[in-house]
Design brief:
Length: about 325
Amino acid sequence: MAATQLKPCLVLLLTFSLLAFASAISRNRIKSLNQIKEVNRKGPYIGLITVIATEEDAFFASGSFKPDPKFPFIDLSGRRFRFGVVRGRKVVYVRCGEGMTNAVGATQQMVDLFDIKGIIHFGIAGNTNNSMSIGDVTIPNQIAHTGLWEWLNTNGTLDSADVAQLEIGDYNVPKGNGTNLLGHIGYMEEEYYSVAGEPNVAESLLWANISLQWLQLASNLEGMKLEQCVNSSLCLTEKPKLVVGLRASTSNIFLDNAAYRDFLFQKFGVSSADMESAGVAMTSLSNGYPVIVIRGLSDLAGNQEGDNVVSKFGGLAAVNSVKVVLGFIRNLPLITR
């Protein structure tokens, strides 16, 4: 009898709790929307997006970011969007988190909510090009999402629309020793929607083309001095360089495998690999915003002996990417409404 009488009380208590929770969310949302209106009155901004703490630490350690005294940040969906000035240009900065989903979500949130004139995405990446070295910085002119696969069985047929094929059996050791049941992978193009296209009609896209005007502006930075040493006892053997105009690939894979590294370079001609750049670039471009990607090379993507060296040189690569970002921002024309 007591248990039966208790149930309505529990239901009532749960109802009140849910209403209170919903009310708190509503109040926080209204507060955030009001703050967004306030910060947008101070715009327009250049959007800055990094991925991991190493990149964020390098950015703030540069001392270039001067936070807005009234609205230094707004927290939205678990991310902290920071407002301030870099080299005389108003910026909004966010760390998106690893992977394509995080990259797309944070970028779309940024362009939807804030008065943005363009996006600079920067951080570190794996090197897939033997002519590049750890510590170098690459600004690609094209980026492909190489994570759209159809994984076929051993008797599967490659789709004529696929842009490349990876025969896993080609990498058997010893070569040709029996049947590789993993079969082969066909690489697919992206379904790309944009403000420039027909509504609800996707375009097939492999390469996202980085905004030409920003690429030309970035090319003026080639030859700039980059950091060569992590500390007094750990230095790179060669002076790092900035290269503008190569290709990059993105997929939800941390690449630490020499054979796959070589495959990406041979099939797609990419010089760097990461997990976010295509997401940021395609989202920016599909919404009609200029975008540029600046990545410092932190490792040889599986082509070095022993453990991946990203733990040694990731910080240096991040610092060099920040140096290029600051140079690029300094060369941007002052933005007015």
